[in-house]
Amino acid sequence: MLSGHRYQFNQPQAVALDGPDVWVTNSGEGSVTEVDAASGAVVRVLKGHRYEFNQPQAVASDGADVWVVNDPYGGGSVTEVDAASGALVRVLTGHRYRFDEPGAIALDGPDVWVANSGGDSVTELDAATGALVQVLDGPAYGFSYPGGIASDGRHVWVANALGGSVTELDAASGALVQVLDGPAYGFNNPVAVASDGASVWVTDDPSSGSGWVTELDTASGALVKVLDGSAYGFNSPEGIASDGARVWVANATGDSVTEFPTSSR
User: Of 127, 134, 206, 253, which alpha carbon lies 20 to 30 A from 88's?
Assistant: First the structure.
């Protein structure tokens, strides 16, 4: 467990792993802590006006750059940082990006995808330049308070918390592929999503009960199984990540993380 004053954790909200480093957003202080993944030692804490961190909600890294979503409720911005030096690259803000309570972010190489919970939309950015590519919105996409997003390079998956659904997009064009909806998938309040190439994993945090995780087939979107019950120790599962071999689930109410092998499917 990482704790102590040296990490300067203050209401840590999100975490990203890029190989050598772990990046943690501190929503309470408006900072990002960089930790050495091998040793657990703190590398640096990024804070100050130049980064324009404002209740940072989500983070993603590809090893070259770190992208941080800032959500001041009613607006929003994205801060890009150089992963090697911690230097500020740019801050993206303004009406043209249509950020509205951005709560999740995903990278797939050429693109950065930001889910706007308040705007029921997804903003696509060019990862090399930070330029706006497009904003996807409207009922056609089935977005309803999108709070989770993931990309495997071919598909973009969006968890719609209020819609009880998951939207699949074509990563190359942003075109709608399908909206997965209904009790058959076990969706009630899907809050986070992860893709490892073979499977898509969706956490569901209902208003009552322990919660569950739905596994989908990446190629077709078909249901594989719903992992439910105390056997997995789920307790308001929210954040989720998978490296293809294992899945990690953050249990908000349980103050715990559940780890299980993907082979359990």
Answer: 134
Q: Looking at the structure, tell me whether residues 63 and 143 fall in a common domain.
A: no
Distance (Å, rounded) from C-alpha 43 to C-alpha 38? 12
Q: What is the pLDDT of residue 110?
A: 95
- Residue 156 shares a structural domain with residue 111: yes
Q: Which of 23-32, 55-64, 174-183, 253-262 has the lowest mean pLDDT?
A: 253-262
Sequence-ordered list of residues with C-beta below 8 angstroms from that of 200, at least 6 positions apart, any chain: 150, 155, 157, 166, 193, 194, 215, 216, 217, 218, 221
pLDDT tens for 41-67 read 999 999 999 999 999 999 999 999 999
Average pLDDT, the chain: 91
CA distance 29 to 12: 9
What is the CB neighbour count within 10 angstroms for residue 47? 16
Q: Which residues touch 168 (CB under 8 Å, ≥6 apart)?
A: 155, 156, 157, 158, 176, 177, 178, 179, 180, 221
Cβ atoms of 34 and 46 closer than 8 Å: yes
pLDDT, residue 80, reads: 98
Residues 239, 154: one domain? yes
Residues contacting 101, CB < 8 A, separation 6+ = 71, 73, 74, 76, 116, 117, 118, 119
Q: What is the CATH number of the domain that holds 232?
A: 2.130.10.10
Q: Six-digit token pair at 176?
A: 């709608």
Task: Please name every residue paired with 77 in a beta bridge, in sequence order, or none if there are none.
Answer: 70
Quick one: how far is CA 59 from the chain centroid?
7
User: CB of 102 within 8 A of CB of 152?
Assistant: no
Supply the CATH number for residue 73's domain: 2.40.10.500
